[in-house]
Amino acid sequence: MGKETSIVHLFLGFLACLSVLVVKAEDPYRYFTWTVTYGTISPLGVPQQGILINGHFPGPQIDCVTNDNVIVTVINKLDQPFLITWNGVKQRKNSWQDGVLGTNCPIPPQTSYQYKLQAKDQIGTFTYFPSTLMHKASGGFGGFNIYSRDMIPVPYAPPAADYTLLVGDWYKSSHKALQRTLDSGNALAFPDGILINGRPQSTSFVGDRGKTYKFRISNVGLSTSFNFRIQGHKLKLVEMEGSHTVQQVYESLDIHVGQSVAVLVTLNQAPKDYFIVASTRFTKRILTATGILHYSTSRTKASGPLPIGPTYHVHWSLKQARTFRMNLTASAARPNPQGSFHYGTIKPVRTFVLANSASRINKKLRYAVNRISYVNPDTPLKLADYFNIPGVFNLKTIQDKPTPGPTVFGTSVIGAALHDFVEIIFQNYENTIQSWHLDGNDFWVVGYGNKQWTPAMRQKYNLYDAATRYTVQVYPNSWTAIYVPLDNKGMWNLRSAIWPRQYLGQQLYLRVWNNERSLFTEYDIPKNALLCGKAKGQHI
Ligand SMILES: *[C@@H]1O[C@H](CO)[C@@H](O)[C@H](O)[C@H]1NC(C)=O
């Protein structure tokens, strides 16, 4: 053997070792054990039953890094079946872990289930919350933050600290009382308050003058959009549900139910305390929560009028939403620019127009999508698919476009092929704000408009630098258009993030499918999957 070839062989051997090493180097694991109990909390000054995780309301925060495996054992000590869903955590190839009734059997009382999630190829600000019944109204939610790996540049200097703010409307009534109201066919009353990290006022965030802090703000409420602002300070938007945005500066930001944003705040004012404010949007009565931004050397309490924010101004919100853009040159979870994938040049293969509605069936209030008011079957859709159990759902229940006729009950599942690139129009003929969330896939928000969507509206789409996210608002009597790459095989919930609407039928599932059974496109059913309904007694 000549000298050169032996060197080549040596080099190839080295490469082979390296690739073995690369394959073996598993992503890190983070373990959490969560005991879910009832406990007395008094966020609005009156004791009420809350849902606690390890004794805490709100629940513990998950902080992890891109690609980490996150293993969460949930021990259900409530008196009802329970599930947690991971809002915006994509779970590639793994709708088995999505924690909604279409994918998972609920965890019976006094038992546990171990979720195995992976924050694969994701960064950003997300949340988790209970998906069962009206449990979300009593707690059980928390922050889920995915940090960038060290090797990947983030498009801003590291902040001095990172704060998570869970903001949402709140009722003094228990989740069971709220459920009774909905079950009896009535809408919920107006909420009793709005909370920031479990308190209507005085949650405090400390910083040093001259430094910059990151505030991750999520709307964990049931029904109400809010506007967020900090007295005397500006908000520089840097991230929105996993997209690095063009860093624009705002006086205040609207955040709709289920949405998350991250902003940078520089403490460049006189060293005192300042009010942090969240106030309800599009409501006749305005509820306000306050927190405190405390300069570390401050000896002066926050004072003066609260900074003013928009209240019913719909157009203001729409205009602001149109300014949210993706920073195309920033890296995302992988070390390549976010703009390297040119979504605007791909022609969608299908268009869905999904119209929400409120009407009565048997005199009881129900919400629907294209006239179908969703009912959860006893057998999760995903299990029905896996075990080939007939009679649980069919793909003809819901139409791709609104059709005239009465609202009926049904189990809506839209069938789509893996890697289909689709356009969804959320058409809102109602006079209230909507918020839609898709599990398992993020999407480009390409357009917002008034009244009726028509194909001509496509000319006004942003096909260049729209940001991707998981949750999008639709203004009253308006439409929102999204482009969705269905690259994640599985059964994915598309729902109203406005929880009473979801509970009373404004949801459906997208079955993203191909006929090839392969671990490259979808993971196998987990060994510990719970079985219920017609899947009971099946063998995994
Ligand atoms: C976009 O990202 C790049 C690359 O990280 C960064 O240098 C730039 O400041 C960002 N621009 C804006 C407007 O956010």
TrEMBL record:
GO molecular function: copper ion binding; oxidoreductase activity
Signal peptide location: 1-25
Residue ranges constituting the Plastocyanin-like domain according to the UniProt record: 36-149, 162-297, 378-516
Entry keywords, A to Z: Signal
Key word Signal present: yes
Record-linked InterPro entries: Cu-oxidase-like_N, Cu-oxidase_2nd, Cu-oxidase_C, Cu-oxidase_fam, Cupredoxin, CuRO_1_AAO-like
Family indicated by similarity: Belongs to the multicopper oxidase family.
Protein name as annotated: L-ascorbate oxidase
Species: Aquilegia coerulea
